[in-house]
Amino acid sequence: MNLADSVETLKGIGPKTAEALKRAGIRTVRDFFYNLPKDYESYAAPTSIAEMRPGKVVIKGKIDSLSTRQARRRRLSITEGVIRDNTGAVKVVWFNQAYRVRQFSPEKEYYFTGNFELKNGRYSLISPSTAEVADIDPKNGLSPIYVAHGAIKSHDFRRLVSNSRSKFSEIPDLLPTVKPGTRKNALFFAHFPNSPKSAQRARDYLAYEELFELILAAKLNRQENEKLKAVEVPFVAAKIKEFVASLPFKLTGAQRLAAWEIFQNMEKNTPMNRLLQGDVGSGKTMVAALAAYEVVLQGRQVALLAPTAILATQHYEGLSKILEKFGVKTALLTGATKKKAELKKQIAAGEIDFVIGTHALLTDDTEFQDLALAIIDEQHRFGVEQRQKLLLKSPDGLAPHLLAMTATPIPRSLQLTVFGDLDVSILNEMPKGRRPITTKILTEVETRELLYPKIRETLNNGSQAYWICKAIDDDPRTETTSVKSRCAKLQRDFSGVKIEFLHGRMKPAEKDEIMERFSRGEIQILVSTTVVEVGVDVPNSTLMVIENAESYGLAQLHQLRGRVGRGSKASFCYLLTSGDTRPSLRLRELEKSNDGFHLAEVDLKLRGPGEIYGALQHGALDLRIATLSDTKLIHRAQADVQKFLQNPENMVKYRELMNGITKYQQITTLN
User: What helix, strand, coil percent values describe the chain, rounded to 5?
Assistant: First the structure.
């Protein structure tokens, strides 16, 4: 079996089903088998209908009288029916699941698992999951539950996996150092467990294998990087001291250490591959400026790639003022740059020393005469191919040095795995004069009484405020207030105050224009989605309101909070929660701490790495089974990878098993 084959090669998957699976990200045979159950339901001891009590229940019976109606609220359908066994009958209700009418056969028996609760004055079984009795192994009563993907519901995928049951025996092993058949057995028992323990053992092995492959890829990428050649950039102590002395502030100890680590890397003839991570406002850009100046002193070029035009412009405005005093010719290249062709000719001729830009730097017609250093800001926002494209811009066959920067502090476990091929520098000190941001949790009820007076005080002091909303437009299915609605409400409540809204669906020029006006102080309250999360630097903004705060992850909340507190004034962040429930642990942690590194570790445990780092966005993190909070398993996989690489025969066998293709090959390559 070739795991890279299309999912359509499996039994029972025709073009229509294959297309639905592809929309869910299940394109290959490997994707199919690694789409593991999110949980398992036990049907070993169902409750009779007569003995049902409020709470979660499992019952077995036949269903009839199914019908669907539209509720008064738009976009809400209600499907109802009656489940019967030999002891009685109970009403069942599903919301927005009209397909349930077509799912059941009246003569067949099914298991139903859901909450039995009081709804509209009558006890009903609410939105239960289902399984046909004939499909469940009577010996253990376990049934896998899969995440629904659009048209492919859990029971649909369970049926497809059951159709492919015989194919598990053909799954090849991945690691040559394990007992033959280990992987196929693990995948089989993950989908068809004969006990809860067998399911857990299967997942434990698959998690280990996943981490092993990820760490191995990082190690191999590091080895490949060490084979490349780069320009040696000697450290010019006198010039760097002169540059540092000219700055209007003192560098922190962490900045000095990070700069020294970079200088040492660039003196070698192998390309630097370093990640500079530091909290919001820790001074990463100034460290990058030191590295850029060192390279330009040798007559070489530098490129800085930023994810947005706003951030690129801010970098250009700040760095050009500092560097041009020392003869460094800087330029800004974005989609909106005028006389772009002329600027690109200057870059290709080597007349520009330091180019700061967005994706415009990656186009084929953007050429460098002598690119020796590539700096990538908010590196997790760029895919591997985008990073690779910039690094291939060096025309002389030498690889440029790479400095990747991120303001999202990376937990230690991620440093060991996803970023294992990078050297890491950490800025864990804040420049003097930075004041911690006071953070408070408020309920929506407290908005007018406590928050509005604070907003008025902020505006009267000449400062500005952000108000973050989750949605762009109103949605009748939710109670979330949109950017547009909140802006209109604030305009009514704060008469005479200049209030505008901003969101990601606006045209780039329109977004830039609004941010520029906010930067100039022409807008007092900016109501926005998370489009302002990264890189917006307005020192005069001192108040941040985050509505529906419980719907964000810690790392994102911390990034949003970092938009204020960038000047010398006291700054505040208010987290608005809805409902009467107690604030979540992540909100309480944010209220207590301004330390991004601590919050990143907490967020990893609470939400997982995909939530924090946007796996699909940066193209590196595709963990489906393992959790990066399992440090014991990570260290075990690390140690085993080290032993594995000590025997060259292992890699030969490994490549044979994978036909030369590994899941994570090149995922973290930055060379």
Answer: 40, 20, 40
At residue 384, the pLDDT reads 56
314 and 395 within one domain:
yes
Band of the pLDDT at 667, cuts 50, 70, 90? very low
| Backbone dihedral region for residue 331 (phi beyond 0: left; psi -120 to 50: alpha; all else: beta) | beta
Shortest CA distance to 261 belongs to which of 66, 134, 435, 424? 424
Range of the structural domain that residue 114 is part of: 45-135
In CATH, what number is assigned to the domain containing residue 127? 2.40.50.140
35 shares its domain with 51: no
Is pLDDT at 361 greater than 80 in this prediction? yes
Per-residue tokens: 460 = 């009267």
DSSP string, 497-549: --EEEE-TTS-HHHHHHHHHHHHTTS-SEEEE-GGGSSS---TTEEEEEETTG
User: Are 344 and 463 within one domain?
Assistant: no
Residue 531 CA, chain-centre distance (Å), reads 15
Classified as helix, coil or strand, 272 is coil
Quick check: is 207 in a domain? Answer: no
Residue where one domain finishes, among candidates 389, 405, 427:
427
Q: How far apart are CA 114 and CA 445, in angstroms?
A: 33
The separation between CA 135 and the C-alpha centre of its own chain, rounded to angstroms, equals: 37
Element at 330 (helix H, strand E)? strand 330-333
Quick one: 446 and 576 in the same domain?
yes
* pLDDT value for 612: 40
pLDDT tens digits, one per residue of 454-508: 999 999 999 999 999 988 887 665 667 889 999 999 999 999 999 999 988 888 7
d(CA 637, CA 212): 5
Say yes or no: 313 and 288 in one domain: yes
Q: Token match 């809860």: residue? A: 196
| Residue 211 belongs to some domain of the structure | no
Q: Does a structural domain hold residue 627?
A: no
Residues 275-300 pLDDT 10s:
898 887 788 999 999 999 999 999 99
468: CATH: 3.40.50.300
Q: Outline where 120-252 has alpha helix (H).
A: 154-163, 182-191, 196-227, 237-246
Would you call 424 helix, strand, or coil by DSSP? strand
- Predicted pLDDT of residue 516: 86
Q: 384 vs 307, 311, 401, 578, 621, CA distance in Å?
A: 14, 20, 16, 39, 11
For residue 671, tell me if it sits in a domain.
no
pLDDT score recorded for residue 415 = 63
Long-range own/partner contacts, residues 161-169 (CB < 8 A, 24 or more apart)? 161/32, 161/191, 162/135, 163/10, 163/11, 163/12, 164/10, 164/11, 164/12, 164/32, 164/33, 165/192, 167/1, 167/10, 167/11, 168/33
Give the C-alpha separation, 412 to 629, whole Å.
9
Q: Is 470 in the same domain as 508?
A: yes
Residue finishing a domain among 530, 561, 593 = 593
Q: How many domains does the chain have?
A: 4
Per-residue model confidence (pLDDT) at position 147: 86
Query: Strands 122-132 and 110-119: what pairing?
Result: antiparallel
| Lowest-confidence region among 27-36, 111-120, 178-187, 213-222 | 213-222
Residue in this structure with the two tokens 């509005």, named with its chain if needed: 452
Residues 570 and 455 in one domain: yes
pTM, to two decimals: 0.66
